[in-house]
Amino acid sequence: MRIAVIGAGLAGLHCAHQLTKLDYDVTVFEKSRGCGGRMAVKRLDWGELDLGAQYFTARSPEFRAELAKWLKLGIVRQWRFTPYQVTNQGLVPSPDTDTNAEDHSTARYVGSPCMNSPVKYLASTVNLQLNTCVTNLEYTNNRWRLTGDNNLALGSYDWVIVATPGEQASALLNQQTHISYLIAKQVHTPCWALGVATTGKVAPSIQGVFGDNTVSWLSRLSSKPERCIKHNFDDIWMLHFSPETSTALTADTVLPQGQQWLDKVFNNQLTIHHHYQHFWRYANLVNDTSLPPLIDDSRRVVVIGDWTQGGRIEGAFLSAQRVINYMFA
């Protein structure tokens, strides 16, 4: 059986990894030059930036079991810190609680040495074609025919697993399956991500900050395990702007808005020396409820992704694992 997986984020790669172990003929297609999806990392001469997910948690037994494997492999480490919160009185500690944890604090994890380390590990176990954008799916003679840019024939497959954001999945399926009608017209809201290298002293305890209506989250990337600082900078930070602000910003206003926000939060203590910005068109969820399994047995097509399971990295894993369990129960 030939299976095509479209999208090399965690959901697509975990699904492909499991199917490959079962000796299925699996090919993963990824339009970008690297894998990762929301766990993507941007490597620059002045630093490495976690552009998407800043950390992840593990609550379900299934994902906790997978996390244990990743920890044993050394591709994940726990990021230990107490979050802060932006308030009218400035930055204040904002301890969170997890009644399932021994110390009642939320355990946060990051890829090691880079955020995309878990997906790079999975990618090494599958047949992955990078820089290959699937532009068209056609169901004919009980098989799916895939076409890429410039009408490049990518082969025909018995099953197709679409592991992309909902809006892209819907457009790709183009009403050739009932799944198309189960996907909302708008699944995601956007997010501008801004990474900056700075000088200026900030208390070491400030590593992650819940923001406000302008910036929803601030990470001190240089405080994550196994991260290093290049050159003579003090820190590297990642700002994720809120959906409302991201919608209003333009490419020219991202850096000034970020500088203004950092000046306010840190009382003008930071000087920005380098920056990099990325626009996530499909970032946060409009509705974070879980969807029923998006599987069409008659046409042998599946849609997976974190957005089908309430978002987050754990949601990506669970969406893929749910399909594996369904197909081989």
Automatic annotation (TrEMBL):
Q: Where is the Amine oxidase domain?
A: 115-323
InterPro entries the UniProt entry points to: Amino_oxidase (IPR002937), FAD/NAD-bd_sf (IPR036188)
Cited SUPFAM superfamilies: FAD/NAD(P)-binding domain
Q: Cite a single GO MF annotation.
A: oxidoreductase activity
Q: Note the PANTHER family from the entry.
A: FAD/NAD(P)-BINDING OXIDOREDUCTASE FAMILY PROTEIN, FAD_NAD(P)-BINDING OXIDOREDUCTASE FAMILY PROTEIN
Protein name (record): FAD-dependent oxidoreductase
